[in-house]
Write a structure and sequence with these properties.
By secondary structure, the chain is mainly alpha-helical. Helices cover 79% and strands 0% of the residues.
Length: 220
Amino acid sequence: SNSNLVPLVEILGEEEKKDAGSPPQCGRYTQQLPTIPSSPTRVSYGIPERVRVLWPPLLPAVTEASKHCVSTAKEHPLAATAIGLTCGPAAITTAVIAGPPLLIADWAIQSSYEALSHHTPVVETLEKGAASALQVAKLSVLCTKLVVKQGLSVGERQIKRRGGVGKVCEDVVGGAVNMATHPLDTAGKAWGGLFWMGGALRDTVGCVVDSVNVHVEMHG
C-alpha cells in the first residue's frame, strides 16, 4: 500500500511547487462574456434635395448619337448606305442650317442656368420643389403598380369563382339584354347612381369647406 501512495505523493508535491511559483489568483470565477459582433454598417439612401429642372446639354447627346450611328453603320453597311442615300441630303441640310444656332442657344441657356443655380434662391426653391414632386410621382407610380397587381389578382380569383371567362361573358351579355328589354328600370338605376354620386361629391366638398373654415378661424 505504501508503494501505491508514492506516485500520489510525488504528484501532489509537484502541484504544490507549481502553486508556490505562480502568483496568487482570486478564487472567484470570472465568466468571460462573449464578444458581441458589431452591427453591419447601414447604407443610407439619401433623397436628393434638388433636381435639375432644365434639359441636359445637347452637344454631348449629339456626340453620343453620332458615335452610335457610326458604329451601327459599320455593322450594317448596306442598310446604312440605303438610308444615307435616301435621307442624307435632307439631314445634312437641316444639320448645317439649324445645328449651329441651336447648339449656341443651348450653350447660352445651360451656362446661364448653371450660373443662376448657385446664386439665385428662386432656382434653388424651384429645384427643391421639383425634387419633392419627383418623390411624390415615384410614390404614386409604386402605389399604382401595387393597386393594379392586387386588382388583377382579385379579378382573376373572382373570375375563377364565377366559373371562368365564358360564364362571366354570358352574365354580361344577359345583363345587357336585361337592361335593353327593361329601359324604365335601367333609367331608374342610372338616376339612382347619379344621385348617389352627387351626394358623395356634396359631402366631400362640405368636409373640405369645413376644414378650410376651421383653419382660417384658428389662424385668423
